Amino acid sequence: MKMQSLKQVLQNNAYPGRGIVIGRSTDGKSAVTAYFIMGRSVNSRNRVFVTDGEGIRTQAFDPSKLSDPSLIIYAPVRVLGNKTIVTNGDQTDTIYELMDKQQTFEQSLRGREFEPDGPNYTPRISGIMHVENGTYNYAMSILKSDNGDPDSCNRFTFAYTNPKAGQGRFIHTYMGDGNPLPSFEGEPELVDIDGDIDAFTELVWNSLNEDNKVSLFVRFIDIETGKYETRIVNKNV
After folding, report:
1. Measuring CA to CA, which residue among 150, 158, 156, 102 is closest to residue 128?
2. How many CB atoms lie within 10 A of CB 122?
3. What is the mean pLDDT of residues 46-72?
4. What distance in Å separates the CA atoms of residue 95 and residue 82, rounded to the nearest whole number?
5. For residue 211, what are the β-bridge partners?
6. Does the pLDDT of residue 70 top 90, yes or no?
7. Are 127 and 138 in contact (CB under 8 A)?
8. pLDDT value at residue 68
C-alpha cells in the first residue's frame, strides 16, 4: 500500500465524519493517536471534548441546544492498564469492560454493530494501542452495514505489530459527503505521521474542513516509559 500524506487525505475529504489515526512518531519514540469528530447538524456541532480521568468524553457545548444525546455523547478514549482504547461511540465502554474480563479486542466487539442511524448506518470504528516495556502494537476495527443493508453487519479487524516510525493508519466513518453518507471502504489508509505533538495536532486540525470540524484529541505515549502527552482542540470555546 502506498503511503499518503495525511494532510492531503484530510483536505481532499470535506466530510470524513469521525476519524481515528494510530501510528508511531517520526523519531520512533512515541505511540501516536488522533481522534476527531465532525458534524453537519446543529446537534452534532454542539460538542466539545473534555478530560475524563486518563481519557476524554464528549459534552454538549450549549446544553440547551442538545436534542438527542444517544449517539453523540460518549467517552471516545479510555485507558485500561497499558492499553489505550479509542472509538467513535459508546463501544469504548464495551471494549473496556470486556477486555477487563480477559476478552480480546475482537471478541469484545462481537455483540456490537454499526450505529442505528438509517439510512447512513454509520460504521463503528475502534482502535486499541498496547504499549508495554518498550514494545508497541495496535489494532483497528470497523463494524459496518453490508452496503446499507441493516440486516447484515460486516466485521473487520486489522492488527499492526511493531509499527514503523513516521507511519500510521487512518480509518474514518465516511468516504465523503453524501445522502446517505457512503461508509468507509477497504483497509485503514497508510498515512505519514509527521512532527512532534504540537506540530501534528496543528496539521490535523488545520487540514479538517473548516465548516464541519468540531473537536480533536491527540496523544503521544512514550513507548519506553508509558508516560503520555495530550492535546485537545475544540472549535467551540
Report:
1. 158
2. 24
3. 94
4. 14
5. none
6. no
7. yes
8. 87
Question: For 203-213, what is each residue's pLDDT tens digit?
Answer: 999 999 999 99
Nearest to 95 by CA among 116, 74, 122: 74
- Rounded mean pLDDT, 176-197: 96
- C-alpha cell of 28? 520512533
DSSP helix/strand/coil, 44: helix
Answer yes or no: pTM beyond 0.90.
Answer: yes
The label of the residue with cell 475544540 reads 234
The answer to whether domain 6-234 has CATH 3.60.20.20 is yes
Dihedral (C-alpha) 206, 211, 217, 220: value to the nearest 10 degrees?
-20
User: Whole-angstrom Cα distance, residue 59 to residue 178?
Assistant: 26
Q: What is the pLDDT of residue 118?
A: 96
Give dist(CA 201, CA 99) in Å, integer: 29
Percent over 70 (pLDDT), the chain: 100
- DSSP 8-state class, residue 64: G
pLDDT digits (tens, 9 = 90+) for 96-130: 999 999 999 999 999 999 999 999 999 999 999 99
| Mean pLDDT of the chain, nearest integer | 97
- Report which DSSP code applies to 65: G
3-class SS at 192?
A: strand
For residue 89, what is the DSSP state?
S
Q: Which pairs with CB-CB distance under 8 Å and at least 24 residues apart come from 50-54?
A: 50/232, 51/230, 51/232, 53/78, 53/79, 54/78, 54/79
Nearest residue to 182 via CA among 40, 39, 6, 16: 16
List Cβ neighbours of 235 (8 Å cut-off, separation of 6 or more).
Answer: 45, 213, 214, 215
Cell numbers that stand for 65 in this block: 441546544
CA–CA distance, 83 with 103 (Å, rounded to integer): 13
